[in-house]
Amino acid sequence: MKAKIDSIDRKILEMLQQNSNITNAQLAQEIGLSPAPTLERVKKLEMQGIIKSYHAVVDMASVGLGVSTFVMVSLKGHNKENIDKFTKAIANIPEVVECHHVTGQADFILKVVAPDIPAYQNLLLEKVTNIEVVDNMQSTIILSTFKDTHVIPLP
User: Fold this and answer.
1) What is the residue-level pLDDT of the chain in tens, covering all 155 positions?
2) CA-CA distance, 37 to 11, in Å (whole number)?
3) Alpha helix locations (H) across 70-154?
4) Are residues 43 and 72 in the same domain?
5) pTM here?
6) Which domain holds residue 20?
């Protein structure tokens, strides 16, 4: 169900997407409300599930993660049992940072990070291909990224 947000809520969301570390006082000043109602609105957006989390975006290369890939995965059968087995197994592999159930040639698209190609290969061979319901996979290595934003355009 689509939540109802007004122009002030929209401004709060835009500001927090740009800088989730902004203080409530700074946010209040930016949107033109006093701090108490601003905090109340933020809490309401959190309670409604519109704001899902706050987190730091880490530069992967700086922490030794030099390889990112997209992996298209097809399952042996597209049924609830296989989907559940696959998603439970994937949830336990920290190098899989995204898992999307999709339509098209594959059943899932994963985003996988690893320190290097040998580590990535080992991850695929030791963890992903060992999930019993995996039929086949196709990997695409990300050479460079030109846009990676976590800011969604609000309608």
Assistant:
1) 677 899 999 999 999 999 999 999 999 999 999 999 999 999 999 999 999 999 888 999 999 999 999 999 999 988 999 999 999 999 999 999 999 999 999 999 999 999 999 999 999 999 999 999 999 999 999 999 999 888 888 88
2) 14
3) 80-91, 117-123
4) no
5) 0.85
6) 7-47
